[in-house]
Design goal:
The complex is a heterotrimer of chains A (210), B (933) and C (96).
Chain A: H1 18-30, E1 36-39, E2 44-49, H2 56-64, E3 75-77, E4 82-87, E5 90-95, H3 104-112, E6 117-120, E7 125-131, H4 135-140, E8 157-162, E9 165-171, E10 177-183, H5 187-197
Chain B: E1 16-20, E2 23-27, H1 33-39, E3 46-47, E4 54-55, E5 68-73, E6 77-81, E7 92-95, E8 111-123, H2 127-138, E9 143-146, E10 161-162, E11 165-166, H3 167-179, E12 184-187, E13 190-196, E14 200-206, E15 222-234, E16 238-240, E17 253-255, H4 256-266, E18 273-278, H5 282-292, E19 296-301, H6 308-316, E20 320-323, E21 325-332, E22 338-345, E23 355-358, E24 361-365, E25 368-370, H7 373-376, E26 381-385, E27 390-394, E28 400-402, H8 412-420, E29 450-452, E30 457-458, H9 459-467, H10 473-480, H11 492-504, H12 508-511, H13 525-529, H14 546-551, E31 555-559, E32 562-567, H15 575-588, E33 591-592, E34 599-604, H16 608-615, E35 628-634, E36 640-650, E37 653-658, H17 663-677, E38 684-687, E39 692-698, H18 702-709, E40 725-730, E41 733-738, E42 747-753, H19 757-767, E43 774-775, H20 778-787, H21 822-825, E44 836-843, E45 855-858, E46 874-882, E47 887-895, E48 904-909, E49 912-919
Parallel strand pairs in B: 1-7, 8-9, 8-15, 9-12, 15-28, 17-24, 18-19, 18-24, 19-20, 33-43
Antiparallel strand pairs in B: 1-2, 3-4, 5-6, 5-7, 10-11, 13-14, 14-15, 16-25, 21-22, 22-23, 26-27, 29-30, 31-32, 33-39, 34-37, 34-38, 35-36, 36-37, 39-42, 40-41, 41-42, 44-47, 44-49, 45-46, 45-48, 46-47, 48-49
Helix pairs in contact in B: 2-3, 2-8, 4-5, 5-6, 9-10, 9-11, 15-20
Chain C: E1 3-6, E2 10-13, E3 18-22, H1 36-44, E4 52-58, E5 66-72, E6 78-82
Antiparallel strand pairs in C: 1-2, 3-4, 4-5, 5-6
Classes of the chains: A alpha+beta (210), B alpha+beta (933), C mainly beta (96).
The complex binds zinc ion.
Pfam family, one (chain C): SoxD
Organism (chain C): Pseudonocardia ammonioxydans
Protein name (chain C): Sarcosine oxidase subunit delta
Chain lengths: 210, 933, 96
């Protein structure tokens, strides 16, 4: 088949980084370290705006099968994704299986009549999964937030900076499992930054106190 | 060899070889470069920056004002202190004579930073700091303990005892206890160098410097810890003070505590014939220890009463103690190093004290100055303590405590108590002290009394500053440069303030001290840059099609953080040739570019039209669904801020585009209005910049290509008119097409979810092969739009340009009651006919490409400029070669430009005046005949 | 690196925020009714006090929400944060 007739398929902006990520995981493991960096599967993403005190919220929660978190900087899980707090009237709804009921066309009618909005932002961001015992240490090299499990346990999230890229950081576990959403155009930069920062763990660990 | 058996904490079982000023020496692990040099009797290290006087090592740590060295191996680095460079095998260094020298090759070492959070940060792992850290750790706090030396323990000596044990045993126990806590981070070789608001402390960790050429490449060489602490405990110790006397800068003269430290820490006896000049008790320990190690020691105490315990300890080891005597000068041998001290009677002392005493080393102690820098950095007030003869922390700074010697507490029991309160371990009672006799300088020639040895600044320089009218220590500091060298006045600052006060006849406390500012120690730029260098200096943003651009040889340009293809050269083409070819393709056949970097904002809500009417100069609420309108946004000042297109997707739904560079600013600007001025408007804004990949497909044959690729599309002009949009699909993937033209040609913008961007781009390029489809970059885009007179906001505008200045009065609605900027259009300044207008400019020789930014002046028939100041008419904002016009052309902002169309002006260029004719700004297809194909 | 207390996200480093100038300078209800001088004053003139100053800030790298704050221009200390539209709170040492 030529390019002219090849069916359109989605590409992951971090596809070409996968060998480098895998090599990192291998090299760190060879030193006895535990760090896994990989592109997260692409998920349908919808930016949802609604008045948390208005009638749209229960309707949306019913459609998504999970409540919208109202506590700032937290997220809740759905069957195949997350509902992430982005602001007092804003959430990011992700769906790995691209469930139609979690997408813009289904959500907008639920909120539009109540002054809300729903926008397909699937291509806007890409996500990386970072996990392992060294995950928090790696993030500490570029993220100013206190990620200690006592301050940023599983279920928390933050829109902040990692290196010089804006990220939406989700704690999936207590200090050893993170999902990092980044604007697609910054994905290459962030991948390069993470790989460079993780160089630290590719060789023997330093003596205590270094 | 000055190494003494039985002393020091160095590993004598291993020998390190190093080279200094071309000579090979040996040392041991645990040595610094300074201790190893002193072990070999090397006393002259370099020469001073202004006077070229020989200089040696005056201290055992970062308070050395003179022992500067240039490192050559393992990597060139200038202006380090020999006393802080840990000795490594293969080290190559030399003394600094004048200035240091930067490496000429890039540093291959890694540098990074780490964000560290804690409840309690303790700076300094001396007895006070160690116990403060232990106390916090035992409370279950998250603790960070940093200390700049190789080992914890501060100034504890091997003979000190804590809790009935050798002090070092006690230190080891506390360190081991701290290591057992999960949430305690204890870092040695880490210097806290700046203290800022909200518990923020920067600390430089030297991670691999001590490993020399064995430093592993995967670890950062130095790391800046960005520590955020709820509470900061400063236990940074104190700096011993020198006394200014004539020729006090000679090699062989050092601080008394340094002489003792070289013996106790490094096993180096710095001299055999040692003179000690002191004004307080601490130097007695140095005298006794050096005498005990075999030196012949004479101690001159400025005080007429000497401390009984220490005097006995000294005389027991053979030290001669001379009370009421001060050092007034020194003598030197051929190498410039000290050979004798001249002494004289102290005030009230023995009038017969004046004599000359031979020595090879002179140890000096003028008392102790608390290292309160980290307290002063955050506006902590320092108060003068008469007993100390120094400033120490006074007043409170929320979240910061200062303990131990940094707080002016000089006795061990006091330090332990400040670190551990009631939990403090027991120590033997201190012998009774005789108060320090605060002495800034002794009688002698002020021009030879050095205050800041690093700056060659003397008491005479202070006098000169005062004679010039300076009265504040801050002014004296700047006039004399005292305290501005690498040591930031650690040793000189206090005596400079003291001497200034005395010369002014004021008290030191009344005069005050200079404010300490970060950094406490010099920090390499590499460490401050961390990972932000090379490819990671600034984020690089790329589109979904970037890999294709790279594979097809695009030459990129940086647009903000974006990498955008500038042009796609074919083999042998330069930029001009490639751009002319790309332009011709767009005007004659079909061409495609990656416009994905355009900012895109989704606008939803019942008041969306009303909102857009307020922020655009033209009407958006009247736009019909399915249609597209060009719009301009201004600020309150009426100046153009951004432009773009607006698609009406539904009654309550719009999609805006912004310029590539303006995306974040425009969204911020709109959110500002929405959230702060018009919160009642039911509108939501969402960035979809990266969600959509956008490809302008441009040229007379673009319709043909679109028909071919999207068979469901009715692309006829009637069904799909200019400035309208349609949704279609390809392989089930939604695609949005918009007839928008930034070139004047028939053109479409193809929009798709960016995940499909690369695939769709490849499909379009493959499908267009038989039409000669040509990928083009930003340079061609600029030429095409400039030929049509379309401005680029930010290139043809600079924040001082109104829509009217751009000749775009048509984009300013007269119907709307108000919109952002409208009121300013009525200001007289904005209706001045002499405002600069955007016009075209054609060099009359039809050959010269005028540079962007070139100034425009009146035509002068004689070909010369009028005398300066030459009246400026404006400047060139855009300038290109045009394939269509077959000549260079330019856009320019020219005063009263529209009224001058047809006139000729001059543009100074490469030493001559180039004549150019002012024209309208639309140079190609002014009647707009091409846009429908 | 100062911390600024976003009313929604809590304390974050200052580089996550953008400054928006003096607070409580409302857009005039009818700009056309103003003289040129009055309009010019609204567009170009702002206070510059030494001491507590009400300011607009936006948490640009976080929740993208605007809020107001009173900051002491002598020390940079944030004395209060409060929502857009709310009255300026009294602060210790402030002149409000
Ligand atoms: Zn926030």
């Amino acid at each position: 088949m030529t390019a002219e007739t090849r069916p359109l398929r989605p590409a992951h902006p971090l596809e070409s980084w996968e060998p480098a990520f895998a090599a990192l995981t291998r090299e760190v493991a060879a030193q006895g370290g535990d760090l896994v960096l990989e592109p997260a599967p692409q998920a349908r993403a919808t930016d949802l705006r609604l008045d948390p005190a208005g009638p749209a919220r229960p309707a949306v929660a019913a459609a998504l099968g999970a409540g919208l978190p109202t506590h700032p900087n937290t997220w809740t899980a759905t069957d195949d994704g997350e509902i992430v707090w982005l602001g007092p009237d804003e959430w990011l709804v992700t769906s790995r299986y691209a469930r139609p009921d979690a997408a813009e066309p289904a959500l907008r009618p639920l909120v539009a009549g109540h002054g809300g909005a729903a926008v397909d932002v699937t291509g806007q961001r890409v996500a990386l999964r970072l996990r392992g015992r060294l995950a928090r240490e790696l993030l500490a090299l570029g993220c100013a937030l206190d990620l200690h499990p006592s301050a940023f346990p599983g279920g928390h999230c933050a829109q902040t900076l990692l290196g010089q890229a804006g990220v939406l950081l989700l704690a999936l576990g207590d200090g050893d499992d993170y999902l990092i959403h980044v604007r697609s155009s910054f994905a290459g930069y962030l991948a390069e930054w993470l790989l460079d920062a993780a160089t630290e763990f590719r060789g023997a660990a330093p003596a205590a106190g270094t | 060899m000055n190494r003494v058996d039985g002393y020091g904490r160095i590993d004598r079982s291993r020998t390190l070889r190093f080279t200094f000023d071309g000579t090979v020496y040996t040392g041991h692990p645990g040595d610094t470069l300074a201790s190893a040099l002193l072990a070999h009797g090397v006393r002259v290290v370099g020469s001073s920056i202004k006077l070229g006087r020989p200089r040696g090592i005056t201290a055992a740590w970062n308070d050395d004002a003179t022992g500067l060295v240039q490192i050559e191996e393992p990597f060139p680095e200038p202006m380090l202190l020999a006393s802080t460079v840990e000795l490594t095998d293969g080290l190559v260094a030399g003394g600094v004579n004048g200035q240091g020298r930067l490496a000429t090759v890039a540093d291959t070492a890694r540098y990074d930073r780490r964000h560290t959070h804690c409840d309690t940060l303790v700076v300094g792992a001396g007895p006070a700091g160690l116990l403060a850290a232990r106390t916090a750790a035992r409370r279950g706090e998250r603790v960070v303990l940093v200390d700049d030396r190789r080992e914890a323990g501060g100034s504890l000596a091997p003979t000190d005892r804590i809790d009935g044990r050798a002090a070092h045993r006690f230190v080891a126990d506390v360190v081991a206890e701290l290591a057992g806590y999960t949430d305690v981070l204890h870092l040695q070789r880490t210097t806290a160098f700046g203290h800022y608001d909200d518990g923020f402390v920067l600390a430089l960790q030297r991670r691999t410097d001590h490993l020399g050429s064995d430093a592993p490449g995967h670890l950062s060489r130095q790391r800046v810890h960005r520590i955020r602490a709820r509470r900061t405990v400063v236990a940074a110790g104190a700096h011993e003070r020198p006394v200014a006397f004539a020729d006090n800068d000679r090699p062989g003269i050092m601080l008394a505590s340094a002489g003792r430290e070289y013996l106790l820490r490094y096993g180096v006896l710095v001299g055999r014939e040692v003179a000690v000049f002191t004004t307080d008790d601490a130097a007695y320990a140095a005298a006794a220890d050096l005498a005990g190690a075999g030196a012949r020691v004479t101690l001159f105490d400025a005080r007429t009463t000497t401390p009984a315990h220490w005097t006995r300890a000294c005389t027991d080891t053979g030290v001669t103690v001379r009370a009421g005597t001060v050092v007034t000068g020194t003598e030197a041998g051929p190498d410039g190093a000290v050979t004798a001290v001249r002494t004289g009677p102290a005030p009230g002392g023995d009038p017969a004290g004046g004599t000359t005493t031979p020595c090879d080393t002179l140890l000096v102690s003028g008392g102790w100055t608390p290292a309160a820098h980290l307290f002063s950095h955050i506006r902590g007030t320092l108060v003068f303590d008469d007993a100390l003869g120094a400033f120490r922390p006074g007043g409170a700074v929320a979240g910061t405590e200062v303990i131990g010697a940094a707080n002016g507490t000089l006795d061990l029991a006091g330090c332990l108590a400040e670190g551990a309160g009631a939990q403090a371990p027991s120590v033997a009672p201190e012998p009774e002290r005789v108060p320090t006799l605060v002495t800034w300088w002794t009688p002698g020639d002020p021009a030879r009394q050095f205050v800041d040895l690093a700056r060659d600044a003397t008491v005479a320089d202070i006098t000169r500053a005062l004679d010039a009218g300076m009265r504040s220590v801050e002014h004296v500091k700047r006039y004399t440069t005292i305290g501005t060298a690498h040591d930031q006045g650690r040793t000189s600052g206090m005596i400079a303030a003291g001497i200034t006060a005395e010369l002014l006849g004021r008290s030191a406390g009344d005069l005050g001290t200079t404010t300490f500012r970060p950094p406490y120690v010099p920090v390499a730029f590499g460490a401050l840059a961390g990972r932000e260098r090379g490819d990671l200096f600034d984020p690089v943003r790329t589109t979904a099609v970037h890999p294709w651009h790279v594979a097809h040889g695009a030459v990129f340009e940086d647009v903000g953080q974006w990498k955008r293809p500038r042009y796609f050269p074919r083999p042998g083409e330069d930029m001009d040739t490639a751009v002319l070819r790309e332009c011709a393709a767009a005007r004659r056949d079909v061409a495609i570019m990656d416009g994905s970097t355009l900012g895109k904002i989704d606008v939803q809500g019942p008041d969306a039209g009303e909102f857009l009417d307020r922020v655009y100069t033209n009407m958006m609420s009247s736009l019909r669904v399915g249609r597209v309108r060009y719009g301009v946004m201004c600020g309150n000042d009426g100046m153009v801020g951004d432009d773009g297109t607006v698609l009406r997707l539904a009654e309550d739904h719009y999609l805006l585009t912004t310029t590539t560079g303006g995306a974040a600013t425009v969204l911020g600007h709109l959110e500002d209005w929405l959230q702060t001025e018009w919160p009642h408007l039911r509108v939501h804004l969402t960035s979809v910049t990266e969600h959509w990949a956008v490809f302008p497909v441009v040229g007379p044959r673009s319709r043909e290509l679109l028909r071919q690729v999207f068979p469901d599309l009715d692309a006829s002009n009637d069904a799909f008119g200019f400035m309208s949009w349609q949704d279609t699909a390809l392989d089930g993937v939604p695609v949005r097409l918009a007839r928008i033209s930034f070139s004047g040609e028939l053109a479409y913008e193809v929009n798709v979810d960016s995940r499909y961007g690369l695939a769709l781009w490849e499909r379009l390029v493959a499908a267009g092969a038989h039409l000669g489809i040509t990928p083009y970059g930003t340079e061609t885009m600029h030429v095409l739009r400039a030929e049509k007179g379309f401005p680029i906001i930010g290139q043809d505008t600079d924040g001082t340009v109104t829509p009217h200045d751009l000749g775009m009065s048509w984009v300013v609605s007269a119907k709307k009651d108000d919109f952002v900027g409208k009121r300013s259009f009525a200001r007289p300044e904005n209706n001045d006919p002499q405002r600069k207008h955007l016009v075209g400019l054609l060099p009359t020789d039809a050959a010269t490409r005028l540079p962007e930014g070139a100034q425009i002046v009146e035509f002068a028939a004689d070909g010369t400029l009028p005398p300066p100041p030459v009246p400026m008419l404006g400047h060139i904002t855009s300038s290109y070669l045009s394939a269509e016009l077959d000549r260079p052309f330019a856009l320019a902002l020219v005063k009263g430009g529209r009224a001058r169309i047809g006139e000729v002006v001059h543009v100074p260029h490469e030493g001559s005046l180039v004549a150019a004719e002012i024209t309208g700004h639309v140079l190609v297809d002014p009647e707009g005949a091409r846009r429908d194909g | 690196m100062q911390l600024i207390d976003c009313p929604w996200c809590g304390p974050r480093e200052e580089l996550e925020f953008h400054y928006g100038g003096q607070a409580h300078v409302s857009y005039p209800p009818d700009p056309q009714a103003l003289t040129d001088e009055q309009w010019g004053h609204f567009v170009f003139f702002r206070d510059n006090p030494k001491g507590p100053f009400p300011e607009r800030w936006v948490h640009g790298a976080g929740c993208r929400r605007w809020f107001n704050a009173v900051r002491d221009t002598r020390t940079h200390e944030f004395l209060a944060v409060y929502p857009i539209g709310a009255a300026r709170p009294g602060v210790p040492g402030g002149d409000a």
